[in-house]
Amino acid sequence: MAGHTPTLPAPFSNAVSPLLNDLYQVTMAYAYFKGGRHEEHAVFDLFFRKHPFKGEFTIFAGLEECLRLVDHFGFTADDIEYIRETLPGVSEPFLEWLAGLSTAGVTVKAIAEGSVVFPRLPLLRISGPLGVCQLLETTLLNLVNYASLMATNAARFVQAAGPDARLLEFGLRRAQGPDGGMSASKYSYMGGFHGTSNVAAGKAFGIPIRGTHAHSFVCSFVSLDDVPDPTVTSADGSRSVNLATEAAGCLTELGFDAETTNAGEFAAFVAYAVAFPDTFLALVDTYSTLDSGVPNFMAVALALARLGYQPRGIRLDSGDLAALSIAARNMFAAAASQLASDPAAALAFRNLNIVASDSINEAFLHTIAESGHSIDTFGIGTNLVTCQAQPALGCVFKLVQIGDAPRIKLSQNIAKVTVPGAKLAYRLHGHDEFPILDVMVLESEEPPRAGEPFLCRHPLNEGERVRVKPRSVEPLLTTLYSDSSVVGELPSLESVRSHCLVQQGVFKPQTQVKHPSPYRVYLSDALYTLLHDLWLRETAVPELS
Amino acid sequence: MAGHTPTLPAPFSNAVSPLLNDLYQVTMAYAYFKGGRHEEHAVFDLFFRKHPFKGEFTIFAGLEECLRLVDHFGFTADDIEYIRETLPGVSEPFLEWLAGLSTAGVTVKAIAEGSVVFPRLPLLRISGPLGVCQLLETTLLNLVNYASLMATNAARFVQAAGPDARLLEFGLRRAQGPDGGMSASKYSYMGGFHGTSNVAAGKAFGIPIRGTHAHSFVCSFVSLDDVPDPTVTSADGSRSVNLATEAAGCLTELGFDAETTNAGEFAAFVAYAVAFPDTFLALVDTYSTLDSGVPNFMAVALALARLGYQPRGIRLDSGDLAALSIAARNMFAAAASQLASDPAAALAFRNLNIVASDSINEAFLHTIAESGHSIDTFGIGTNLVTCQAQPALGCVFKLVQIGDAPRIKLSQNIAKVTVPGAKLAYRLHGHDEFPILDVMVLESEEPPRAGEPFLCRHPLNEGERVRVKPRSVEPLLTTLYSDSSVVGELPSLESVRSHCLVQQGVFKPQTQVKHPSPYRVYLSDALYTLLHDLWLRETAVPELS
């Protein structure tokens, strides 16, 4: 924006600009401008009405990108020219105003990124000149909706897989284009995943990257002729061996038959082990998992173990993953027993990691947790990144106050009525600092205080009231942007992720995937009264006769 | 890439780079390099196995972005440094090779973007050095999968809405981040949508943009006090009037009661009409659609009509859209009758457009097509851009030949067996140029010729054969990139869209949304034989006793 030096890096995606917007934001801005209302002070809340995935929790994500948008907000001369051509109805003074537009007057309050949040809570509260705030709506929603959905989905997968599992995001090829893939990697990590296959996300966000090889690698080998130099040096550097010869001997030693294992696959594993002797992990389902893939892997793994390397393990990518993992584990255990006289080799077979991938979804994780499996790591792609179970979160951005007047958006669907007014939100904690409920309070009111009773009311159910005497009161909305700059330092992705994992623990009754408990978000008495007064005032009484 | 001047613009998203890749592509490239195989000539096919949405057609999209990727492919020094840090196992010569990597040896053949395509057909065929081709896999899949899914979904919505409807993409706020939103706009237009609300997509791709105002605009007005200057000049410039006064008179004239219509909404419509007198379209469901929104709209619309303007119409965004559209149309018709003595005003009420939005999906379009409605234009967001009915297309990228050796990927799931070999594909046309079937043929074979019988075989069903004597033969795969440059000119989005609409007509039996007919993709006899020979050769015979 004119004369402003941004304090944050630019938005991650080059698609983010003030034009990444629904046209109606521009036409509305013009109507406000034309009516002289564009500088009126307005307050907008960004919130959602219903948890995704039929759950009882949502993780708020996307905040840093929102702040980058606000910090870098400004139309280019090109943008203005495009609007001039496309909207011939708008006036030159409006285009001049747009060209000079800045977010200098905009204040952003928000809940910390990575927090567990609930319906109707303002995740972001944007206040400032009506014309500017209106132009932020669509882009903010775009940046929050998918990020929060993704982080929430990831957290659900992590919960479903159980505390010992490691989860890797493998969805890049099925995401909504390049930036969809980047967002999926970032926000699944925020929600609790342990790594990604997406190298660009590793580089951009510092996320651990993981990967081995694909079926095409195995298919590209026909025989050992395709491995001209199968030499591997031992881990201690003392000797070099022909890994192909060693592994062929191991195959026989382990009781497998080179006639029934696939020779191209064997060659592929040798070649891969030559390249990565200290991190050897093989995809074993190209031909036949238990008859060829696992035996070939075990042969190469034993040869590597005898060179002082710890092979990593196998990846299963088709078939009955749970049954195959158990069968493979049994084969590893049998080898370890057979190799009792070679303790290092036996140990290597006890330390193997089984990775499973192949259209895994949350329901599958539940099912195999009950039926039993021997999978250590899950690679999850399509159903994670597309959020198969519910592909969109419904955050909305609603005007709640203009000047001094609180505003309401009514609907024939009562659940869609908005909570009016410039408000703040507090989390009231009880014994052991566990949260009791969240309460929204008008900014002009006295906030709740520790040790003092505070009347909280259900927004729609007149009779449902509760007087809470909190041990401590946590303000949820803090000012993160004002006077053209970010307030304080933004946390790193790593620390947002830690916060998110802590929050998932605090809200255990809500985040557990089976039979979660709902959590309450109430209103102060004054806010309840305001909501219902406005509701009556804005609704006509039809005359029936 | 080193020393290469790209012939195409850079990929649209800044997230596209050789690192936008699964890590295993890099580790495989290293294993190929280490084994001296990275320069071996390889052929990969990009294809899908099953139509999305339980349908019988798919639209191929994303090609231009794939070609941009290939044309701009190259690692930066930064990228190399990141790989050096993250993969300590790889050698310096490999990193040097990566740093100098180019797609100079890569040839891309593809089916024309916007074509109707079928399972197993190679949409893209990538050939060149094994190491480079492997590194293209993930990014190509990312660029094709969502694009094709989106274009196909859009085409289905267009078919379901019927030939008279206009469809607008409104999904930016629910897409997978910024670039997901841009892709949704581009590829829904390609599939047959008529416009988008996304201004950035309008600017970037030349798509028509549409939009009016939101509920927040309506909520921001309490009364006419918020419209200090409601002056509008007539279309012919001859006079200026106070639109608020005129419209208030019209409200009474049309038989509505200002006591039951919402005053803030009335003020909002006046303000919007002052800004856009010649394109006035009002969102009418903020308070009560039929009791307040439509009457307020009609009052302002009549005032505008008397100033010589044609108001555009209304948008419905909640409630029973079909019933409300019929009720609103009846109110317009009643007004037109009442205004018989003022033919221009009466005509204005006969020309109004009813736009509907609110979680519209394909099933809804079918339902209301049967039950009846009066909607002219559908604004479709979430369910379009997230492809709710099936959120991912499963394109894969499979090695089919290396050197002179055709390769196959087997699977215990027979439907997943790949068709091996460097091949081409032809569409055989019969009478009236209608397509009979598509056939894949080894590149080394004689292709099918017009007027000559050609034996076509089902890839898996041994007995299913057909001898086709085509009227004409259309080669499906043409070379689009070779020797470091694009071959010929890429078509504009507008011409890809036209091609796509023509294709939807040609494949009417497949693209009709109800009871579509399947279309056949067969193999030449030689390709059938190769497939089954390789299958037997790569499968071990387990010994049972």
UniProtKB/TrEMBL annotation, chains A, B:
It is an enzyme of class 6 (ligase). Residues 167-402 form the Nicotinate/nicotinamide phosphoribosyltransferase domain. Its EC number is 6.3.4.21. GO terms for biological process: NAD+ biosynthetic process via the salvage pathway. It catalyses: 5-phospho-alpha-D-ribose 1-diphosphate + nicotinate + ATP + H2O = nicotinate beta-D-ribonucleotide + ADP + phosphate + diphosphate. It holds the Pfam family NAPRTase_N. Pathway: Cofactor biosynthesis; NAD(+) biosynthesis; nicotinate D-ribonucleotide from nicotinate: step 1/1. InterPro entries: Aldolase_TIM (IPR013785), N/Namide_PRibTrfase (IPR041525), NAPRTase_C (IPR041619), NAPRTase_N (IPR040727), Nic_PRibTrfase-Fam (IPR007229), Nic_PRibTrfase_pncB (IPR006405), Nicotinate_pribotase-like_C (IPR036068). GO terms for molecular function: glycosyltransferase activity; nicotinate phosphoribosyltransferase activity. Transiently phosphorylated on a His residue during the reaction cycle. Phosphorylation strongly increases the affinity for substrates and increases the rate of nicotinate D-ribonucleotide production. Dephosphorylation regenerates the low-affinity form of the enzyme, leading to product release. Keywords: Glycosyltransferase, Ligase, Phosphoprotein, Pyridine nucleotide biosynthesis, Transferase. Belongs to the NAPRTase family. NCBIfam families: NAPRTase_put. This is Nicotinate phosphoribosyltransferase. It comes from Thecamonas trahens ATCC 50062.
